[in-house]
Amino acid sequence: MAFACVIAFMGIGLVDPILPAISAELDATPAQSMLLFTSYLLITGAMMFFTSAISSRIGAKPTLLIGLALVVAFAALAGGSATVWQIIDFRAGWGLGNALFISTALATIVGATSGGSEKAIILYEAALGLGIASGPLLGGLLGEISWRGPFFGTAALMAVGLIAVAVLLPRQDRPTPDQHVRLTATFRALARPGLLTLAASALLYNFGFFTLLAYSPFPLEEDAAAAGMSNFGAMGLGLVFFGWGICLAITSVFVAPPLTRRFGRRPVLITALAGLAVILLGMALLVDSLAGLAAGVIVAGLFLGVLNTVLTESVMEVSDLPRPVASSTYSGVRFMGGAVAPLVAGQVSDALGAGSPYLFGAAAVVLSIVALLVGARSLRVLDRAHGEPVEEEAWAITGGDG
């Protein structure tokens, strides 16, 4: 499952190095090219609200396989596209498959891993970090050949992941009617104050996250051209975002757990969000410097890794909801923030200048901190000691998983 997750998460950063090439070769504006993220994340987020209901009816393994098959099909179709609008449409289908896979994968890994939910979440976040790190590198390598290469490469790798899940994941009993999750369960879950607070904070945080991820290739490419680096291209962008992904992977696995054990989850979240806001502000000021902008992208990965792990752990602990419902609800809301970010970045950069999207991203991250402070009372459960979950907590996290 972790291997398949690595490949699935490659799709998030895979298109970063080839966005300028797609824009140039398909006669698309940067704003249009960034819609590859918007369509993908919008459908991913919207579908997340229903994935727990689907998996509770047909089972986790069939849900995973359907999701993987959709990603294989739509990634290949995107590679064969003739216009940027076709790629945007096929990325939406890709997002549908990813939604079915990602939300179900987290619940499956937690259920299949020995050693408790915290270790399982760290494994999941490690897969996320490795996938996000390797995605831009693969995109850069294949993008040097053609912008179509990363799409076909992803389709091939996801086909391998599909076979691995089909062969290696144990067959599970079909869920019984009493295990079925209602279609409205994820929407009703937002009535839980703790989950609502974290989801709202994650929505705003992901606005900053995907502003950095989707918009940065364009000013980086412009800065490289201004510096006379005509060979920077897809490989140069891939290396920058590979460094970003490596930093994200390291802190998500090795830094976030000891920080939360020592200081608690809420203080770590607020501090990391403040650090990310400062970096985005710095990137707005250094938008014309290739070295400054690249350094900002890479260093931001350190804070993003901490935030991803701690937010995921917090969502699993803040309510007594079954983890597929909690995961789907949280993921659905946060991906909406990611979907809006590229759309806004393209518009404000044209209207207000190259550094303005980072200012908007920094403002959204500050509002994410405000959300955590306003909802502090609902997050008191996050202040208790970590690392020694009691039996009742373990059941609250794992109970209800079909």
Class by SSE composition: mainly alpha
Largest sheet: none
**Tally of alpha and pi helices:** 16
Number of strands: 0
What is the general shape? globular
Helical percent range?
A: over 70%
Flag low-confidence runs: 387-402
As a percent range, the share of strand residues is under 5%
Order of helices and strands: HHHHHHHHHHHHHHHH
Q: How far apart lie the N and C ends?
A: 17 Å
The average pLDDT is 84
Roughly how many Å is the radius of gyration? 20 Å
Describe the structure.
This protein has 402 residues and is an all-alpha fold. The chain is built from 16 helices and no strands. The chain has helices at residues 2-13, 19-25, 30-58, 60-79, 84-112, 117-143, 149-168, 185-189, 193-215, 217-226, 233-263, 265-285, 290-317, 323-352, 356-374, 391-398. It is globular, with a radius of gyration of 20 Å.
Topology at a glance:
Layout: H1 2-13, H2 19-25, H3 30-58, H4 60-79, H5 84-112, H6 117-143, H7 149-168, H8 185-189, H9 193-215, H10 217-226, H11 233-263, H12 265-285, H13 290-317, H14 323-352, H15 356-374, H16 391-398
Helix pairs in contact: 1-6, 1-7, 2-3, 3-4, 3-5, 3-14, 4-5, 4-7, 5-6, 5-14, 6-7, 6-11, 6-13, 9-13, 9-14, 9-15, 11-12, 11-13, 12-13, 12-15, 14-15
